[in-house]
Each structure stands twice: as C-alpha cells, then as structure tokens.
Design a protein that fits this description.
Shape: elongated
Largest sheet: 4 strands, antiparallel
Radius of gyration: 27 Å
Structural class: alpha+beta
Order of helices and strands: HEEHHHHHEEEHEEHEEEHHHHH
Oligomer: single chain
Number of strands: 10
Strand content: 15-25%
Distance between the termini: 22 Å
Helix content: 55-70%
Number of helices: 13
C-alpha cells in the first residue's frame, strides 16, 4: 500500500508541473490543445472551447499539448506524410505544395495548402497506420501555423509558460515546508541536521545549529549517531526517538573519526510555535539551503563525484514508502524535497528539459530571429543523452540499495 501511495505522490507532483504549464499558457493566449490526467491513450475524454480534456490510461502525472512548440519545417512532412505518399502517389502534389510554402516561410499560404492536403487525404484510400500518421501530421502542422502557436509568441510569454512547470513544483514545495513549520509547535529537537538524499536520511550530522542542546552536548558536523540512551538508532529512527523522549534527558553515542564517543546528556528543547509569516521565512530559508545542497551535488557530478547521491523514480518511490512508515510529517517533508528537486532538475539548461527551452527562447529574443531546427535537434540529442545517463546511474544506485 505504501508503494502505491508513493507512486501516486510522484504522479501528483508531475500533474502539478503540467498544470503550471497549462494554466499559464491559457493566461498568455496560447490555448493548449489537450490536458490529461495521466498519459494517453484516453479512457474518457471531452472537448470544450477547443481543448480536449481526458483521463489517460497511464495513471502517472499529466499531459499538456501546447500548439506549435517549434516553427513548422518542410523536413517534417516526410515523417508525417511519407507513408501516405507511398501508398497514394497522387498525394505528392499537395504535399510538395505545402513543402514549398514552408520553405518560403509563406505561412498563410502554407495554411491554405495544409487544408487542401487534408481534403485530398479524406478522398485517398490509405491503410489505417498511414491514415493515422497523416491525420496527426495535418493536426500538428495546423497547430504550428495557428496564430496562438508557441513559437509565434513574445519571448516573455514563452519563458513564462515554460517556467510555470518548475515554478509550480517550487511553490508546492514552499507551501509544504511552510505548513510543516507551522505544525512544529509540539515537536522536540536537539538542533542538528542529518545528511541524506531526497529519499533517505543517514545517521551522519550535516550541521549543528548554534545555541541548541546539540551544541551544548558537544555534537559536531561529521559525527554519526549510533545510539540514543544506549538504544541503537539509524537515520530513520533518530527523530522519532527524540520525539518520544517527552523532553527527558538524552545521551547520544556517536562515531567520530573512527572512535565511539559518549556525549554529555542534554534535554531536547520544545520548538516554539511559528506563525504564518515566520513559517514562510523559515520555509524560504530551508528551500534555499536544500537548493544549495542539490546544486553542490550537480557540481560534484561534473567533477566525477556525487554519483551515489542520484536516484531514479524507483528509489523515489521506495523512499516515499519508507517515509510513510515514519509518519505523515516525514512523508510530506520528502514530498516537498522531491517537488523541489523536480523543479531544479527541469531548470537545467538542457533540451528537452524546461531550462533548455527557456535558454533557447532567451537566445532567440536577443538575436531577434529563430534558432534553426537543426541546432535544436543537435542540442536535444546531447540533452537526452545526459538525462538518460543520469537516469541509468540513479537506477543502478537504486538496484544496489534494494539488493542490499
């Protein structure tokens, strides 16, 4: 059951991301053609005001189709209509007419040509696969030629639509952290932060806060807590053990530089109740702190380190399942961290990630003209290779962890 909830949580974060793109696209005049809960094929669907709403058969996240993400290119026609022309040679003439209009950047003429091609396709006798490919091609070209196409919009509108996806994940993470800070009024703490990945905390100390019981006890960054009041603990059980103390003295046993050290006993302090404004401020500080940690991980990857800190969706779901066993607050904290990670990952300046689209939109705005399709495709190939590499590194890490 926890695994299922973990999958739903990850899907929900993806849905939030796509909803950000969808609503901002509508606000700036780019009318999305489709918005699905889950991924196609559709189980049920309906069309309102030119937008197809549906529930997809693959119940993960969501799907948004924004018209004309790229300027229409003559080279795309062979992909869309090549099979149809082979089966019905009479279609070559309307396809070549459309090709000529696109090569001349005569987009009004191209729109008339694609409508003529659509009529010719209706009269042609084609196999089911060729007919479907041609139908999708007509729809894609018409969308790319539409006045509300993405590539026609001003730079700020394109940047706003693309940033809205990661932005929605970022706002969700801040909202989750704010709510958790407001709920801290009944929690006990010693005043330290544990190291860990987005899925699992370790028992090692990342930092010790000033003027806290942890500092008074002599705890140091780099220490690894192995026992509390003589009871062995790990990364998952440290905080629940502190909460269960009800404010009574705690003695930490740590491993420091390979040696076991008994720290002096201290009483955990009860967190003060935080109001909304203080909680927002603490949430923003925490978000910035985690952002720097994630940035450090990316930086270490460039130098060849940090491989063990990457995880795939398999590890995320597994970590979510384990967090659920520790309680709702632990799971919500993890959900916020994953949402923040999704936002930052998507802002990397790599195509096909959102950050890559933002970077290209800014470059085109500065140059005053579009980047050629060939450049898009070459940069996308590099970006896809990097994303796949990260995925397989994370997957191998997760398989190793599950195997152990």
């Amino acid at each position: 059951m926890n695994i299922f909830v973990g999958i739903l949580g990850l899907g929900f974060l993806i849905l939030i991301h796509e909803a950000g793109h969808f609503f901002v696209a509508r606000m700036v005049g780019m009318n999305p053609r489709k918005f699905y809960l889950g991924f196609p094929p559709a189980i049920v669907k309906t069309k309102r005001n030119g937008i197809e709403y549906g529930i997809g058969a693959i119940p993960l996240g969501g799907y948004v189709k924004i018209p004309g993400m790229h300027r229409p290119a003559a080279g795309d026609l062979d992909i869309h209509f090549g099979r149809a022309v082979e089966e019905q040679p009479s279609l070559r003439r309307p396809v070549d007419t459309l090709r000529a209009r696109l090569e001349e950047s005569d987009y009004s003429g191209a729109l008339e040509a694609v409508r003529a091609l659509s009529q010719a396709l209706e009269e042609a006798k084609l196999s089911l696969s060729a007919a479907r490919a041609a139908e999708r091609g007509v729809g894609d070209v018409e969308d790319a030629l539409a006045p509300d196409a993405y590539w026609r919009a001003k730079t700020w509108k394109r940047v706003a639509v693309i940033f809205a996806g990661p932005g929605a994940n970022l706002l969700f993470a801040i909202a989750i952290f704010t709510a958790l800070f407001m709920a801290l009024n009944s929690n006990y703490r010693l005043g330290f932060e544990l190291r860990g990945t987005n899925e699992k905390l370790t028992a090692s100390i990342n930092r010790v806060l000033a003027d806290t019981p942890a500092e008074e006890a002599g705890l140091r960054a780099g220490d690894r807590i192995v026992a509390i009041n003589g009871k062995p603990v790990d990364g998952d059980s440290i905080r629940p053990t502190i909460q269960a103390s009800d404010g009574n003295p705690l003695r930490l046993t740590v491993v420091r530089s390979g040696e076991t050290v008994q720290l002096r006993p201290v009483r955990p302090e009860k967190s003060e109740q935080l109001g909304p404004l203080r909680s927002v401020r603490e949430s923003l500080d925490y978000t910035w702190y985690v952002t720097k940690q994630i940035g450090g991980t990316v930086g270490r990857l460039v130098t060849g380190d940090g491989r063990d800190e990457i995880s795939s969706p398999v590890g995320i779901v597994q970590g979510s399942s384990e967090a659920l066993e520790q309680g709702a607050s632990t799971y919500l904290t993890l959900l916020g961290l994953i949402s923040l990670s999704l936002a930052l990952l998507n802002l990397l300046p790599l195509l096909p990630l959102d950050g890559g689209h933002i970077a290209f939109s800014l470059v085109e705005g500065i140059r005053g003209k579009a980047v050629t399709r060939e450049v898009y495709e070459r940069v996308s190939a590099v970006g896809i290779a990097v994303v796949l590499l990260l995925f397989f590194i994370g997957l191998s890490n997760d398989i190793g962890r599950l195997g152990n």
